[in-house]
Structures are given as structure tokens and as C-alpha cells.
Write a structure and sequence with these properties.
mainly alpha, two-stranded antiparallel ribbon
Length: 195
């Protein structure tokens, strides 16, 4: 019940104090309809929270694997640069000794420059991937991320039909849609009860 006490500000009309006690009577099942509607809205909110949590986990895992991939590409680019520099040094010695034409020195120089560009690109991709992962982990974008486990392909055999059924039963979006449907049904029930 609602209980309201309002003291009067003026005493012009006699006693200016009011005391009101009211108890609404809910007929025709409006209370249970409102409770059902609130329960359905609660289930929608819970399902949407699960959807958001799963999206966050998926995005974090994706960012992690992108960082692993970027670091592996970075390592490959550095190895390619080292190889190009070794070829350039060897070619320089051979050109200085007169055993190779000078044009080969220009070609190896171009390859070294190309390899340096690839290292710069790989470094920037790794920095972007690291910043993305740190952002998803709610850390400063320049926070250090230690060593990561390398990518290894999974060789497990899976049954597709079982996985599809498990995915469909675990989908929070489906639970959210069902709760939304129930909300509409409860709203219709409430409207009928109030009518």
C-alpha cells in the first residue's frame, strides 16, 4: 500500500495536514500479468548480457590470435631481412673481388630495402594487434604483453550435427528472442486484464 503524509503549509483551511493510505486493487489477473511481463523483461536482459559477454570473449580471443599471427610474421620478416643482408654482404665481396657484375649489388640492395619495409610493416601490425588486445583487456594500449603460445592447428575430429545442435541450444540470442516473444505475450495478457 502507498502511505502519504503531507503537512499543511498554511492553516487557512483548518487542519492542513493530510494522511493518505491507498491500496490498489488489481483485478482480472493484472498483477500476475505484470509479474510475468517483468520476468520476461528480466530474461531478455540476462540473455543480452550473456550475448555481450560471449561477444567480448570472442573478440578478445580473436585479438589474441591476431597478435600471435602478427608476432610470427614479425619474426619471419626479421629472418628475411637477415637473409637479405647476408646475401648483400656476400654479393658485395664477390663484386669487390671482380667475380660478379656490379648490377647484382644493386639488386641485393633493393632486396634489403624491401625486406626492411616488410620488417617495418610487421612491426606496425604487431603494435596495432597488441593495442587492440590491451584495449579489450581494459589495459593501457602500450602495456607490455609477454610471450604468447604459438598457433597450433587442432586435429580433433568433430561431429558437425552434434556441434550444430549444441550451438543452437547455447545461443543466447535465441533465448533473448524467446524472452522477447514472451514479453509481447505478457503485454497482451496485461492489456486484456486491464481492459
Amino acid at each position: 500500500p502507498n502511505f502519504v503524509f503531507t503537512p499543511g503549509l498554511t492553516s487557512v483551511s483548518g487542519s492542513g495536514d493530510e494522511l493518505i493510505l491507498s491500496q490498489p486493487l488489481e483485478l482480472n489477473g493484472t498483477r500476475s500479468a505484470r509479474a510475468g511481463l517483468a520476468g520476461a523483461q528480466l530474461r531478455i536482459t540476462q540473455a543480452e548480457a550473456v550475448v555481450e559477454l560471449r561477444n567480448l570473449v570472442f573478440n578478445t580471443q580473436t585479438a589474441y590470435y591476431q597478435l600471435v599471427q602478427a608476432r610470427e610474421l614479425q619474426s619471419l620478416a626479421r629472418a628475411a631481412l637477415q637473409t637479405a643482408e647476408d646475401f648483400d654482404r656476400t654479393t658485395r665481396r664477390l663484386v669487390d673481388a671482380g667475380k660478379r657484375p656490379g648490377i647484382e649489388l644493386a639488386q641485393t640492395g633493393i632486396e634489403v630495402a624491401r625486406a626492411q619495409q616488410q620488417v617495418t610493416l610487421a612491426d606496425s601490425l604487431a603494435a596495432v594487434a597488441s593495442a587492440a588486445l590491451n584495449t579489450l583487456l581494459a589495459r593501457a594500449t602500450d602495456s607490455h604483453i609477454g610471450d604468447l603460445s604459438p598457433l597450433s592447428p587442432s586435429m580433433d575430429t568433430v561431429d558437425e550435427t552434434t556441434l550444430v545442435q549444441q550451438a543452437l541450444t547455447a545461443r543466447a540470442e535465441i533465448a533473448s528472442a524467446q524472452a522477447t516473444r514472451e514479453t509481447f505475450q505478457q503485454e497482451a495478457r496485461l492489456t486484456r486484464a486491464e481492459g
